[in-house]
UniProtKB/TrEMBL annotation:
Organism in which the protein naturally occurs: Apilactobacillus xinyiensis
GO molecular function: chorismate synthase activity
NCBIfam families the record matches: aroC, PRK05382.1
Name used for this protein in its record: Chorismate synthase
Gene name linked to the record: aroC
Pathways involved: Metabolic intermediate biosynthesis; chorismate biosynthesis; chorismate from D-erythrose 4-phosphate and phosphoenolpyruvate: step 7/7
Binding-site residues, FMN: 130-132, 251-252, 296, 311-315, 337
Any Pfam family hit: Chorismate_synt
Requisite cofactors: FMNH2
């Protein structure tokens, strides 16, 4: 299984191709669109989301709501393109009108400057259009297909917001996907602890008034992931490493943690290892999950727990210092319309990329050509694990 996305933030549309989804899998398009709507929401979003109404169009790989085993091709229209049609036209040659709104004062923290240096772009719009987190809409659509695949294999997962700015919104660290999913839809912050909503709204409002931005921490939990996915035998077969790469591949992420990661580094081994238990009904299990469901780069049957640290959005209305790439004059960075925080949508994006990696490892480990066969293989494998 693999995927590719293309498209600029204000270009005509986003495109995606996902390969090697098993044939015969039931695909619910409404569920993809629901995930896309969730990604558009959340307190702290900017005005762009009032323009967009993300809906996926499937143009290949699916027939009568069932996958064919062939590449799944998807598109999502950028409604805002209507306002950028000339500037972002893929076909018109450059002229005085369609080269307006050039970006020459790179925003610190964005790809603007380094992207321009690397690709030789003198209009940094050529960089920011692709480095924009708009692209994550397609990763959510692809991730939702993978999530549906996992759900049909009885694996569930959810991504949510653990902290915004410095405010912790999850003191209990739940490991049950259902519990988390029920709690986070009760507010527009995707947090478990509803009591923190008001405080965080105020924090976001004040930050916005100050022309500033906020980051936060995202936590993803996956349940019923069978033991033994990934492998200890080589560095590049470890599934936790692949998850970390996928998470770091999401815009604005600056840290990844598996389980209690950084806290584990401060504790003695006796407080970190998850002691082994065995029961007739379930086979081997653990009494705790400090290691986030991973040992030796392999899942160990406990809930998979992945965390991500997101830096604040680099576009500040109270612009930071920059230097013009043409005049070399040191002055304020370009100000582009932006969000105050995108931590809520980012939680769905991180959930999506974790879903993609889990679906990938499963379809690579077992024969992923046909859904019924895959289901049967996984059921047999689970029985085998229980009897070990
Ligand atoms: C983004 C800037 C904003 C965000 C955008 C990401 O877009 P615009 O420049 O059009 O206001 O809204 O995110 C999305 C469009 C989206 O769908 O998530 C950026 O610079 O990364």
């Amino acid at each position: 299984m693999n995927f590719l996305t293309a498209g600029e933030s204000h270009g005509p549309e986003l495109s995606g191709i996902l390969t090697d989804v098993p044939a015969g899998m039931k695909l619910d398009i409404d569920e993809i669109n629901d995930a896309l709507a969730q990604r558009q929401g959340g307190y702290g979003r900017g005005n762009r989301q009032k323009i967009e109404h993300d809906e996926v169009i499937i143009t290949g790989g699916v027939r009568h709501q069932k996958t064919l085993g062939s590449p799944i091709a998807l598109t999502i229209k950028n409604r805002d393109h209507a306002h950028w049609a000339a500037i972002m036209s893929p076909t018109e040659p450059e002229n005085a009108q369609n080269t307006l709104r050039q970006v020459t004062r790179p925003r610190p923290g964005h790809a603007d400057l380094v992207g321009g240096m690397k690709y030789g772009h003198r209009d940094l719009r050529n960089v920011l259009e692709r480095s924009s987190a708009r692209e994550t809409a397609m990763r959510v659509a692809i991730g939702n297909i993978c999530k549906q695949l996992l759900e049909q294999l009885d694996i569930s997962l959810v991504g949510y917001v653990e902290a915004i700015g410095g405010v912790q919104a999850d003191l209990n660290k739940p490991t049950d996907v259902k519990t988390i999913s029920t709690a986070i839809v009760k507010n527009d912050l995707r947090i478990v602890d509803n009591d923190q909503v008001e405080k965080i709204h105020e924090l976001i409002d004040t930050t916005k008034r100050n022309g500033d931005t906020l980051g936060g921490v995202i936590r993803v939990v996956a349940n019923n992931v069978p033991a033994g996915l990934g492998s200890y035998v080589s560095w590049d077969t470890k599934l936790d490493a692949k998850l970390a790469a996928a998470v770091m591949g999401v815009n604005a992420m600056k840290g990844v943690e598996i389980g209690d990661g950084f806290k584990d580094a401060q504790n003695p081994g006796s407080k970190v290892m998850d002691e082994i238990n065995w029961q007739q009904s379930a086979g081997f299990s653990r009494d705790s999950d400090h290691l986030g469901g991973f040992e030796g780069g392999m899942t160990n049957g406990m809930p998979v727990i992945v965390k991500a640290a997101m830096k604040p959005i680099p576009t500040l209305y109270k612009a930071l210092q920059s230097a013009d790439i043409n005049t070399k004059e040191v002055k304020k960075a370009n100000v582009e319309r932006s969000d105050t925080t995108a931590i809520v949508p980012a939680a769905i994006v991180i959930e999506s990329v974790v879903a993609i990696e889990l679906a990938k490892v499963i379809t690579d480990t077992f024969d992923g050509s046909n859904m019924a066969r895959l289901k049967q293989q996984l059921a047999n494998y689970r029985d085998e694990l229980k009897a070990f």
